[in-house]
Write a structure and sequence with these properties.
The chain is of the alpha+beta class. It has 14 helices and 12 strands. The chain has a 5-stranded antiparallel β-sheet, sandwiched between helices. Strands 6-8-9-11-10 form a 5-stranded mixed β-sheet, covered by helices on one side. It has a two-stranded antiparallel sheet with strand order 7-12. Helix 1 runs antiparallel to helix 2 and helix 1 runs antiparallel to helix 4. It is flat.
Length: about 625
């Protein structure tokens, strides 16, 4: 025991010593990283200042050349007054920037980010440059005051430009040399820090990781010994475990009953009750059980069910039997049980059974209600389909009557008039004959127009030949001519597309019905039909300025011959055929908007097609 405590104390001291050296090594590495970052950030700030100074110094050369160029332009003889004033303004601005940058390079300027210069060599160059800079500044000021009539100031400016550029080049080169020297010093510092970090890592390997690896190796050796001892102990435990395995299996079976069933009972091989749970007795409305009572007599009062349960409970079996059964309690209540019969002690001659049950009465009642509701919904849908079918038949009959009336009242009457006029022609009366022939030509033209209108309303040729885009354009144009109303078509799509003919026909008919409703019932003077499509959606919008209506009337059942009622019904039916969507928005006195949306699925990718108006 004493040896164990000494070993534990030694291990703790070793761990503390290794942890102390490890923390010191990490602290040294962290310190070198912080120092390196400080040096790098200082150098970056210095480089930023150097780059800004070099940039400004380089621009001084460009601004000096810009001053000379503007001065030369100012001394042109054919300048207008406004151009001269503009050049004077530009020259003054250039002089201000050039002068400010020159002073900032020496004394510093916070507004343009220039530090004060303290390098003796660069300041000496600026002293040499100041003579030429001052002369150029005075010359430009003389030109700005417009007192240089003889051009002497321009001569002074030109004479000092070359020396100024030469000295400025020397200053820029000096700035570059200083920046490179700073960078070289930083490299040396970085190399020293790198060497220091590598040294720390080497010392850490020698004095921390190496002793730690030796300690781990010793620990693994001890673990291997402990593992061998554990395996020997496990063999002994395995023997004990095999001896108690049968008892454990019985405990598992009993555990299953307790964990998974709230209603359970057990019976002997002859079907008499051994045990029944209190909850099961409460459900069966039983208070006490006489000795040697058969389990089937407790479960139900129905004699036929008792006989059936007696047979399945006493019959020897090797597998679990599961079924759903309806029972009847003493109070006359009917219950549904999900019953599992589990055989026990299969190897012995006297086999007993364990009965596990679940009360599924509520589920069965709900299932019956669902079946009743399903049947009722099916009957409601069938009645609705019959109503829709009758409405469709009535609509078809009304359409046939309308077509027959149009042909009889329009085309039929014109044909009758044509016949009577042809029969009344008398070739002996030439003047009268000419008048009748002229009338017949006009009547024939009206007849052709009527036939074209009727056939157009039935099946427009543009729809089958070119698609929905030109068909809607033709429809709006023809209806505008026939009704005298402003019916316009706007194509917002980039180009014409073709897709499923059934969808094209139904979209055309729904649009036609919406326009006709706007003409007949809304008393609209302006109707706009616009069409657009994206990759997956075709949209047709019909707007009118009519009297509008209360949209709640659309929720009422459609009635034949009602204003727009049957029309809206057929519009919705047609859109539902192609899995489209129909939206109708309106308010009394504010017009109506009808929107048709049709999804272009992957199997109906639109095909591009061009056409001529």
């Amino acid at each position: 025991m004493k040896r164990s405590n000494q070993q534990q104390t030694l291990e703790v001291s070793t761990f503390l010593r290794i942890r102390k050296w490890y923390l010191l090594a990490l602290s040294a590495i962290a310190l070198t990283i912080i120092i390196a970052q400080i040096l790098i950030q200082q150098h970056l700030n210095s480089q930023l200042n150097d780059s800004r100074v070099i940039n400004v110094a380089g621009r001084q050369r460009a601004y000096s050349q810009k001053l000379v160029k503007e001065a030369l332009l100012l001394n042109q003889e054919n300048l207008e007054e406004n151009e001269r004033q503009e050049l004077l303004k530009e020259l003054n601005s250039t002089l201000y920037i050039w002068k400010t940058s020159h002073e900032g390079l020496q004394m510093g300027n916070d507004s343009i980010g220039l530090p004060k210069e303290d390098n003796v060599s660069i300041l000496e160059h600026f002293d040499e440059l100041s003579i030429h800079h001052s002369a150029m500044v005075d010359a430009v000021k003389t030109m700005l005051s417009q007192k240089d009539a003889s051009g002497q100031a321009l001569d002074v400016l030109l004479a000092n430009e070359g020396p100024f550029l030469e000295k400025m080049d020397a200053i820029v080169n000096e700035y570059d040399t200083i920046s490179k020297e700073r960078l070289q010093k930083l490299k040396v510092k970085e190399y020293l820090l790198l060497c220091f970090s590598l040294l720390i890592l080497i010392l850490e390997v020698l004095f921390i990781f190496r002793p730690l690896s030796i300690q781990i190796k010793e620990t693994i050796r001890n673990l291997v010994k402990s593992q061998l001892q554990s395996e020997q102990d496990a063999e002994e435990i395995k023997k004990i475990f095999e001896e108690k395995e049968r008892s454990l299996q019985e405990l598992k079976e009993l555990n299953f009953v307790i964990d998974n069933a709230a209603l359970f009972a057990s019976a002997r091989s002859d079907g008499t009750v051994v045990f029944i749970s209190k909850k099961f007795l409460t459900l069966l409305e039983e208070s006490n059980i006489p000795p040697n009572t058969h389990l089937s007599e407790i479960l139900t009062t129905d004699e036929g069910q008792q006989q059936y349960l007696g047979e399945i409970l006493t019959k020897p079996r090797k597998s679990i039997r599961t079924e759903e059964i309806e029972i009847k309690t003493k109070a006359g209540n009917k219950l549904w049980l999900d019953m599992s019969i589990i055989p026990m002690h299969q190897t012995s001659l006297k086999q007993s059974v364990l009965l596990l049950c679940s009360d599924i009465t509520e589920r069965k009642n709900n299932q019956e209600k669902v079946e009743q509701l399903t049947l009722q919904n099916y009957e409601d849908r069938m009645r609705q389909k019959q109503l829709q079918a009758s409405l469709i038949v009535e609509g078809q009959e009304e359409e046939r009557k309308r077509i027959a009336k149009d042909i009889h009242d329009g085309i039929g009457q014109m044909l009758t008039a044509l016949r009577f006029n042809i029969e009344s022609i008398n070739l002996d009366q030439k003047e009268r004959t000419k008048e009748k022939i002229a009338y017949l030509k006009e009547l024939t033209s009206d007849l052709i127009k009527g036939v074209r209108t009727a056939t157009f309303n039935l099946t427009p040729p543009e729809l089958g030949d070119h698609g929905i885009f030109p068909a809607l354009q033709k429809m709006t144009s023809e209806l505008s001519k026939l009704t005298g109303k402003n019916i316009l078509f706007e194509n917002k799509a980039e180009q014409n597309i073709r897709f499923d003919s059934l969808a094209e026909t139904n979209i055309y008919r729904v649009t036609q019905e919406a326009v006709n409703n706007a003409i007949k019932y809304a008393d609209a003077n302006y109707i706009l039909v616009s069409i657009n499509h994206t990759d997956n959606l075709l949209s047709v919008v019909i707007d009118d300025d009519g009297k509008g209506f209360d949209p709640t009337v659309l929720d009422r059942p459609p009635k034949n011959n009602s204003e727009g009622g049957m029309g809206v019904f057929f519009m919705r039916e047609r859109i539902s055929y192609i899995n489209g969507r129909l939206f109708i928005n309106s308010n009394p006195g504010e017009g109506t908007r009808v929107t048709i949306n049709y999804n272009l699925n992957e199997t109906q990718k639109p095909k591009k097609e061009t056409y001529e108006d």
